[in-house]
TrEMBL record, chain A:
Ranges of residues in domain ABC transmembrane type-1: 68-279, 364-555
Transmembrane segments: 64-94, 115-135, 155-179, 216-240, 260-283, 309-340, 360-384, 404-426, 432-451, 485-505, 534-560
Compartments (UniProt record): Cell membrane
SUPFAM superfamilies: MetI-like (SSF161098)
GO terms of biological process kind: transmembrane transport
Gene source species: Maritalea mobilis
Protein's UniProt name: Putative thiamine transport system permease protein
From TrEMBL, chain B:
Keywords: Periplasm, Signal
Protein's organism: Maritalea mobilis
Keyword Signal applies: yes
Record-linked InterPro entries: SBP (IPR006059), YnjB (IPR027020)
One Pfam family of this chain: SBP_bac_8
Record-given protein name: Putative thiamine transport system substrate-binding protein
From TrEMBL, chain C:
Keywords, ordered alphabetically: ATP-binding, Nucleotide-binding, Transport
InterPro entries assigned: AAA+_ATPase, ABC_SmlMolc_Importer, ABC_transporter-like_ATP-bd, P-loop_NTPase
Residue ranges of every copy of the ABC transporter domain listed in the record: 6-214
Name recorded for this polypeptide: Putative thiamine transport system ATP-binding protein
Species the sequence originates in: Maritalea mobilis
GO molecular function: ATP binding; ATP hydrolysis activity
Amino acid sequence: MHMTNRALNILFWAAPFLVILLLTAPLLAGLLGVAAPALGYFPTLGGLELTWDHLHKAMHVPGFWHSVHLSIWIGLATTLISFVIVVGFFAAFWDAPIFGKITRFISPLMSVPHAAAAFGFAFLFAPSGWLIRILSPWATGFDRPPDWLIINDPLGYALLAGLVLKEVPFLFLMCLTAASQINVDQRLKLARTLGYGRIWAWLTVVMPALYRQIRLPIFAVIAFSSSVVDVALILGPNLPPSLPVQILRWMNDPDIEMRFVAAAGAVFQLAATLVALLIWRLLEMLCSYLMRQMQTKGMRHQNDQILRGLFSGTMLTLVLISMASLIILGIWSLAGYWRFPEALPRSMNFSRWMENAPYFWGPTFNAIQIGIVATLISVGQTLICLENECRHNIRLTQKALRLIYLPLIVPQIAFISGISILLVRYGLDGSFWPVALMHVVFVFPYTYLALEASFHDLDPRYMQTAAALGKSQNRIFFQIKLPMLLRPILTALALGFAISVAQYLPTLLIGAGRVPTITTEAVALASGGDRRLIGIYALVQTLLPAVGFALALALPKLLYPNKIYFAKQREA
Amino acid sequence: MRKNRFFRSPAAKQLALASIIALGAPTHALAQDQAPDPANWESVLEQAQGQTVYFNAWGGAPNINNYIAWVGDKLKAEYGVTLEHVKLEDTATAVSRVITEKAAGRDSGGSVDLIWINGENFAAMKEQGLLIDDNWAEQLPNYQYADIEGKPTLTYDFTVPVEGQESPWGMAQLTFYYDSEILPEPPTSLEGLATWAEENPGRFTYAAPPNFIGTTFLKQVLYGVVDDPSILREPATKDVFDEATAPLWTYLEEIKPHLWRDGAIYAKDTTQLKNLLADGEIDIAMTFNPGEASSAINAGELPPSVRSFVMDYGSMGNSHFVTIPYNANAKAGAMVVANFLLSAEAQARKADENVWGDPSVLAINALPAEQKAYFDALELGAATLQGEEFGKTLLEPHASWATMLEEEWSKRFMRDM
Amino acid sequence: MVEHSLHLKDLRISLGDELLFHLDAEIKAGEVLSVMGPSGSGKSTLLNAISGFLSPRFTCEGQILLDGQDVTHQDPSLRKIGLMFQDPLLFPHMSVEDNLLFALPRGGSKHERCEKVREKLRAVNLEELGPRDPLTLSGGQQSRIALMRLLLSNPRALLLDEPFSSLDVELRARVRQFVFAQARENRLPVLMVTHDQADAEAAGGPIINLLNHK
């Protein structure tokens, strides 16, 4: 008993250091593994001298600067639009009944993987997509699809729309968590009694506090959308493509010289993401300056009906589009021959599902295994780190823990290929554990993000009461904290599982193709463009995390039937 | 029998397991140092027994995936070889992996055993010494029936001599297809195509190079406009290239405004072309697999009225192969797979349009009667061209042409800031 | 019944260079010391110091003697000082009975332990509440269960932090009565922090104001 207690204490003490090492070491190694070939050093490929040539060569590829520009613009525009939609909706409808209804729709949307959402979007909005099929020919007069440039447009508007569709639910949930931290209702009441309009009240008294809480998720959105690969392959421009897709092409070029250029491209990608973050920082400063100017003028902005209508309209449209995307994926997965402009296929059946079931079962099982292992490790680590912080009250560790968010900010494509060389070198690629551990690097930041607030929110007097009853810290941790945090822990597990299932590049490169998951299979099949199969795989890919989220909702009620505490907790 | 009983006892299993663990590593390493010798086929079969072969092949087409799964079942039953299909989004991923392994110094026990490959990827691997050095492919027992005489692309892959470093698997020919209900008379000459495109704006496009089919379309047009096609078989120099390709660029720029989406974007690949035709967005699509249209009709993806055609001056043709990286872990097993892929049974099933529809590399008329029977049972769909209809095969230009065509196309058609 | 005592010997607590208070008090078994003072005077700091949750930002000099034993720097879980807050803080994921079982020190078979808990509940006529979800209980019931939970852990002293301020006037008197009676019965020294003069007077013990102990 005493021994286990001591072992546990040591574990809690050492955890933060281990975590920081586990998360930052691969990152640094990966960056090094990319920077070296970018500067020409890659001995087995004959690169022995340091040179700027490859960076130059990358810059002189036709369309290169356009690619860079695209990445920065997509990263910023996606974030700005999603942010405005989410914050606008929060401001306009925080205490209205529609808020709860939308929340119930938004959470499940989190489980739709990016690629699946992108395919659904394309199937919906292409000139031969479902929308025009439904309207043709009776409303549009089209009996053949119009020659309109919608998907893969050169300026990336389709890519932008597809990303916004996915980032809005993410930011929505992050805002919801953050809002529970800052006593929104009291603040609002105060401002409203002073005669401030709904939206303006929110922006002046809630927004500044809320923004501090969601800043990190916003940075993650910028970094993600400026370096996204899968969605860009489906919806993005291709002449030239955005930078990350271009890098992937270079990596896959049979000309081995191009691997140096790909590494150089990865360095530019890192820079592009940093520039996007920097511009956002400047925007932040500008906005806070403007806000301060306007606040002091005492304007009340009570007349915000039009704006409110606009925000509810936008949010409803987004939810509808997302739902329709899932439906159209379902229809395609069942479709027989489907001629334009018929609104539905001539025949629908399950034969494709039956034929493919034996093939997607293995990868699905792999994805589940990896997801469970990576998520359990991540949530376990998160809890141990948080508990350690709480016990030792170490400020330094807290600051150092910020390092763990690096994997969210540094573009995957800029360091994964670097790590894979190292792993191959030591024969660690191509098996289950390296893949699962690599997933931890990307899952952990999210589980930490999801649990941190709930953990700190737990009334410390419960723990003091238990300690005064003579219970050890370890016992309190297991018997009081963990059960009381059951719901947020389960939500973090579901979120982590969803993140793990969606990982493409790490699974592919570290798994050396020997650990296929539903996601790597889906992308491989997507390269064939068979819409029926894409429908099937996208739905399976969506179903996995959806089951996770459903379990997270249902389990507390099953484990603790009739406990009001779990019933009244808000899902977030 | 006695042996069997022995291995069923639990103690023996444990013993066997222990010895595998104890000896596994060294025997493993020994086996890598020397590639198995296919001339001694019996010993290859023996070594292959129980091996797992990781076959890295493009995984974008469910019918091909199903075919590979069938091959796996066969191999398991007949040779005790386990085939794992590593589904790639792009063949170059496998090449990259071998490069990564070489970079990391893993010269044996590599993770890639067999790759579906041709053209630039093969040229790159061969040049970098990433393949088995020996001429193993020509010594495979089933290689004797390959149609070496009739199919020059089996010995020169994009002008690079194959030299037995990859084993033939299938044939490809640039084929156009269209819906005969919408377009009764497709244009079969370059001028005809240009005129038709102008009269029917937005109804034609090709895939953007460096996509395979896109680059092939450029070569196809180049053959049609170049004065002396023989220069294409030599490595391209800047001057020769500029002069020879000038009419090609004129042609492409002339049709550009009449293309789908006004030529602002191009299709991604053959599958998108197929989807666009299925949706009625375009009227003419192209593919490298002459059986694709019939196959797609059978799968309910295209209407039964679809037909195929080739250009009147001939069409680009090549072959695809499988190859074994120098550091493959299961070389013997990979050879057994390559050999089986060449068998009449496997080739005939592959040519079946209800399965895949990929033309065979074998000289069918030279096959022994019982093997030829596999092919006699096949029926080609109405959308598949046969024999004479294919016309002349245009050989792939030297690999340097492809690289320069892709670069120049990017310069001219890629949007820049 | 053991006679417990709590002795705050020359206790000085300061934040940085600023002395918050300087206290010397002895509380005998069954006696209630009421500590009053405006907010910011250091009432909760005093409680934290005695129960062992003092933040490291404070410095604590002097001694806290429990039954004559120095516990000033002991781990809170080893002190055996019971804490009661304004809110009853019953663990919401456990039933009433589980809350009480959690407090009971180790030892005894499962059956014996349950019997002990039931006996305790019976003694205060709350027997029927055992299987209930604590959040379904009334405020007064919750407070009484919280006290029972405390007593089951065999504490050597009680600390009450504004324990009755969340209850309405009528209930307040009854719960107060109940708590003090239990403390006397168990021969426990009690330190109560309150801002309510009525609470302090009802306790019937000495009353000190922290402002006078600078």
